[in-house]
């Protein structure tokens, strides 16, 4: 479904993405892990169009993604969420989701249709809020939500776009244990219908969700494999999990 | 202080006041003030159109008077050629309102499209500076039009535009004509900011970077509202040209853009009705401060009334975050 070939991006002397090739198969949950500063968000930003790669190619659903402007990618089914919460602060939770529905229904330029009186949109938005555990907060202003709830709203907005491929940039960051567990359950329920590329630091989440895992270190993919194989991979242990853990496993 | 629940009543009262104003002024033997009232209504159209940009979309445009000027010059130039019996770009001049007024709107929208397409590629301070530059470019363009009076501008010797049934040369009729257009434009803007498109504008103002990821291109939405606002200002300019029967580059000078901005901020950005109140207070002070100082025998201040005017504006903006609107209305919730 998503095919990245020889992608490179540098910022001055910093090689943030170096010759990355990665394939995400339809219906799978593909996790992208790596230490801080490995270039995970940079990679997500190139796929979603926020950054333009220096070289390489990205194919999505059989089409050349790099030829598609960033704002058209969600319409093609490619949707991202943000590591740093980015919602519309003065809108209600329902309006945040409603705005996404409006955009995907190509109603951006409706100058006369009153916002807020579209019952179909409201019902759709409420259904998504129900799924993401925000039903009780539908009428709250987004800026008044607790941090964990804002993270949930971030996911709700991504889901509202009805993605074929969901790029999740550390969706659990800053969530409590309970919220994190609920989100894991939600993502599990999407398995098979929505393909996901998941950046996440919480290894419990990664290993419980992912079908395949790629490890990114200093802009390079050093391994792509099943969770079991990744766990056993020496290079990964050394580069990512650290020699400390390696040492522990050796002595165990 | 009133709550926003009282807004409809406030609108109704304001509308009633504007409708009976000519009678009141005539009864008070001050019918010369009808001309000031007309200016107020026209000015309010320009201010409301600028509020769409500043208040609702977060686009601080510092060249809005340019479109005001374009609208006015369309009226002036066509009147000029009608008088001279010559053509402009192959077209005869005309005073026919049904042609002139829509044309003024379309041409100012066209200017807004071109200027907006370039200016909206920048953001923040750069956007302010580039709109200011475009405004000044148009100002000097009009100054250079020697055929149309250059610096001095030109008179409309044959009077105002001509409409079927309605006689615009009648002072009171013209006031009502402007009032009706203002009411229609206000209703349109009121509807627009509450529409789905209006919601997109509000989202752009609050978090523009997020738009791309939900499939919205902010540039297109901003360009559309820039064109709508430009057309609104052009309409106001066309009315102003008819009102004064005189057109000059001064209409597009950057200080006029500044006046419009002051009115919007003074009244309260993002409220529509605020800028209308702002226009009201602005014109009132402009009209009466010199008179008051004259009566008090303070002739120096009469000459330099803006010295007092400035601090009054600063005080209002300082003490009421959302301007006059914020002084009168408490925000819901």
Write the layout of secondary structure elements.
The complex is a heterodimer of chains A (252) and B (333).
Chain A: E1 2-11, E2 14-24, E3 29-33, H1 40-48, E4 55-60, E5 63-64, E6 78-80, H2 93-104, H3 119-131, H4 147-160, E7 165-169, H5 177-190, E8 195-199, H6 203-209, E9 212-217, E10 220-225, H7 227-232, H8 234-241, H9 243-251
Chain B: E1 2-3, H1 7-27, H2 33-57, H3 65-84, E2 87-88, E3 91-92, H4 97-119, H5 124-144, E4 154-155, H6 171-193, H7 196-211, H8 218-244, E5 246-247, H9 254-267, H10 273-295, H11 299-303, H12 306-319, H13 323-328, E6 329-330
Parallel strand pairs in B: 1-6
Antiparallel strand pairs in B: 2-3, 4-5
Overall average residue pLDDT of chain A: 90
Count the beta strands of chain B.
6
Number of helices of chain B: 13
- Structural class of chain B, please? mainly alpha
Tally the structural domains of chain B. 1
Placed side by side, the strands forming the largest sheet of chain B appear as 1-6
Strand percentage of chain A lies at: 15-25%
The coarse overall form of chain B would be globular
Distance between the termini of chain B: 15 Å
> Which overall shape of chain A is indicated by the principal axes computed on the Cα atoms?
globular
Query: Which class do the helix and strand fractions of chain A yield?
Result: alpha/beta
The share of residues in extended strands of chain B comes to under 5%
Strand order of the largest sheet of chain A: 6-7-8-3-9-10
Radius of gyration of chain A: 19 Å
CATH superfamily of chain A: P-loop containing nucleotide triphosphate hydrolases
């Amino acid at each position: 479904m998503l095919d990245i070939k020889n992608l490179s991006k540098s910022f001055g002397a910093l090689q943030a993405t170096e010759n990355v090739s990665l394939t995400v198969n339809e219906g799978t949950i593909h996790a992208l892990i790596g230490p801080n500063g490995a270039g995970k968000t940079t990679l997500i930003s190139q796929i979603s169009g926020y950054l333009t790669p220096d070289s390489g190619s990205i194919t999505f659903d059989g089409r050349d993604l790099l030829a598609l402007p960033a704002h058209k990618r969600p319409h093609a089914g490619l949707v991202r969420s943000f590591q740093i919460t980015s919602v519309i602060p003065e809108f209600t939770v329902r309006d945040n989701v409603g705005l996404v529905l409006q955009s995907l229904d190509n109603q951006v330029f409706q100058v006369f249709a009153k916002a807020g009186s579209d019952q179909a949109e409201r019902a759709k938005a409420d259904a998504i809020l129900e799924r993401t555990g925000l039903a009780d907060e539908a009428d709250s202003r987004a800026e008044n939500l607790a941090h964990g709830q804002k993270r949930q709203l971030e996911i709700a907005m991504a889901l509202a776009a009805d993605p074929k491929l969901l790029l999740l940039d550390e969706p659990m960051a800053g969530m409590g244990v309970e919220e994190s567990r609920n989100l894991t359950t939600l993502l599990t329920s999407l398995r098979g219908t929505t393909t996901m590329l998941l950046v996440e630091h919480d290894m419990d989440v990664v290993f419980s969700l992912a079908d395949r895992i790629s490890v990114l270190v200093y802009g390079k993919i050093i391994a792509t494999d099943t969770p079991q194989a990744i766990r056993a991979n020496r290079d990964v242990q050394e580069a990512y999990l650290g020699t400390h853990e390696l040492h522990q496993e050796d002595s165990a | 202080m009133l709550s926003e629940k009282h807004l409809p009543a406030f609108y109704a009262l304001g509308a009633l006041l504007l409708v009976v104003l000519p009678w009141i002024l005539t009864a008070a033997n001050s019918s010369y003030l009808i001309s000031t009232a007309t200016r107020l209504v026209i000015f309010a159209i320009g201010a409301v159109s600028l509020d769409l940009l500043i208040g609702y979309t977060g686009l601080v445009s510092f060249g809005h008077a340019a479109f005001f000027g374009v609208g006015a010059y369309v009226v002036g130039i066509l009147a000029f050629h009608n008088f001279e019996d010559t053509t402009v770009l192959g077209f005869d001049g005309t005073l026919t309102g049904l042609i002139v007024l829509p044309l003024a709107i379309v041409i100012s929208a066209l200017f807004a499209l071109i200027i907006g397409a370039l200016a909206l590629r920048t953001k923040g301070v750069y956007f302010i500076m580039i709109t200011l530059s475009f405004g000044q470019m148009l100002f000097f363009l009009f100054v250079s039009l020697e055929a149309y009076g250059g610096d001095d501008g030109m008179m409309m010797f044959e009077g105002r535009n001509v409409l079927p049934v309605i006689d615009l040369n009648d002072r009171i009729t013209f006031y009502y004509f402007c009032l009706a257009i203002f009411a229609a434009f206000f209703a349109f803007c009121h509807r627009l900011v509450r529409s789905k498109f209006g919601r997109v504008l509000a989202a752009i103002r609050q978090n523009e970077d997020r738009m791309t990821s939900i499939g919205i291109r902010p540039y297109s939405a901003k360009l559309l509202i820039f064109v709508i606002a430009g057309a609104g200002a052009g309409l106001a300019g066309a009315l102003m040209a008819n009102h004064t029967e005189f057109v000059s580059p001064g209409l597009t000078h950057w200080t006029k853009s500044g006046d419009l901005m002051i009115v919007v901020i003074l009244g309260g950005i993002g409220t529509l009705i605020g800028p209308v109140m702002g226009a009201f207070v602005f014109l009132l002070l402009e009209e009466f401060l010199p008179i008051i100082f004259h009566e008090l025998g303070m002739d120096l201040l009469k000459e330099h009334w803006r010295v007092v005017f400035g601090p009054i504006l600063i005080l209002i903006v300082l003490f009421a975050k959302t301007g006059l609107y914020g002084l009168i209305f408490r925000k819901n919730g």
